[in-house]
Amino acid sequence: MYLASEKRYDSMQYNRCGKSGLKLPAISLGLWHNFGEVDALSNMKEMLFTSFDNGITHFDIANNYGPPPGSAETNFGAIMKSDLKPYRDELIISSKAGYLMWPGPYGEWGSRKYITASADQSLKRTGLEYFDIFYSHRFDPDTPLEETALALDSLVRAGKALYVGVSSYNKEQTAEIYKIFKELKTPFVIHQPCYSIFERWIETYGLKGYAADDAEIGIIAFCPLQQGMLTDKYLNGIPSDSRAASKTGFLQTNQVTPERVAQIEKLNAIAQNRGQTLAQMALAWVLRDGKVTSALIGASKTSQIIENLGAIKNITFTKDELDAIDGIAN
């Protein structure tokens, strides 16, 4: 039986999620990759235990994570039952509904039918009584936002979720659903967008400022390392154990271009001058101004988690450093 480190809260930074009472660790662990049926349960356990031993209290899943879809929730549920159950009240566990899970017209998007059924399935797979956060994983252009919002609100009122959030909604969609949640008094506390040095759409289209300053909700950034490209992994080619080399990964080898590698080399030089690895600097950059509550990392081994945790030791940048990073990324 796993026994958590008594020092697990000594070095982690916890940030308030908007104006809510919920706090998240500055670094959270996502189970998008490396927690499916094709992966080793022993490695999953090691990564989860290492994370919690170092103050990562937030584990983020979704109904479709695997492969196959659903298997990440099943594997997490097995580890929860065998080892993490005594620590349930110390953990923030989130899941989502939005992407394709079963055939037919009710197996994806944002209808009340799909969200309710999907949440029930996710609870069954994980063996949990409730999720701390449940997300609408993507905006549904064919379902009224009021229906999606009411479905999420119902999960809270039924005791199946404590808080709700949205993922990858743009500024206008977020503002619209925020108004509905405010009228319903739903605890809408967080937005999960893709955000990194290379992917800045939440800045370009005003979502970051709206979420943090106007709506006063938390932001948790997924893919802050651009699926490994904001690390030193691809400086000397494509490693056989990398996401780009994986048959089940979303990062493709043709995305690791000579131009991209040249950018990575320049960013790596800045990181070295800061006394950080490139991964640590990329995570620090996401957290730099206090508007992002947590950076959501993925990992394939514990050494990556330990390295990434070093980011929070220095999230302060000089203007020259920020200007140099902007010049390289743009």
Account of the protein in words:
The protein is of the alpha/beta class and 330 residues long. It has a single domain, classed as NADP-dependent oxidoreductase domain (TIM Barrel), CATH 3.20.20.100. The protein is built from 11 helices and 10 strands. It has an 8-stranded parallel beta barrel with strand order 3-4-5-6-7-8-9-10, surrounded by 6 helices. Strand 3, helix 1 and strand 4 form a beta-alpha-beta unit.
Summarize it.
The chain is α/β, with parallel strands linked by helices. The chain has eleven helices and ten strands. It has a single domain, classed as Alpha-Beta Barrel (TIM Barrel).
> How far apart are the termini?
49 Å
Radius of gyration: 19 Å
Helix content: 25-40%
Number of domains: 1
Reading off the top of the CATH hierarchy, the class is best stated as Alpha Beta
Q: Write the CATH homologous superfamily.
A: NADP-dependent oxidoreductase domain
SSE arrangement, N to C = EEEHEHEHEHEHEHHEHHEHH
On the 0 to 100 scale, the average pLDDT is 95
Beta fraction = 5-15%
Structural class: alpha/beta
Q: Can you tell me the CATH topology?
A: TIM Barrel
- Biggest sheet, in brief? 8 strands, parallel, barrel
> Which term fits the overall shape?
globular
CATH architecture: Alpha-Beta Barrel
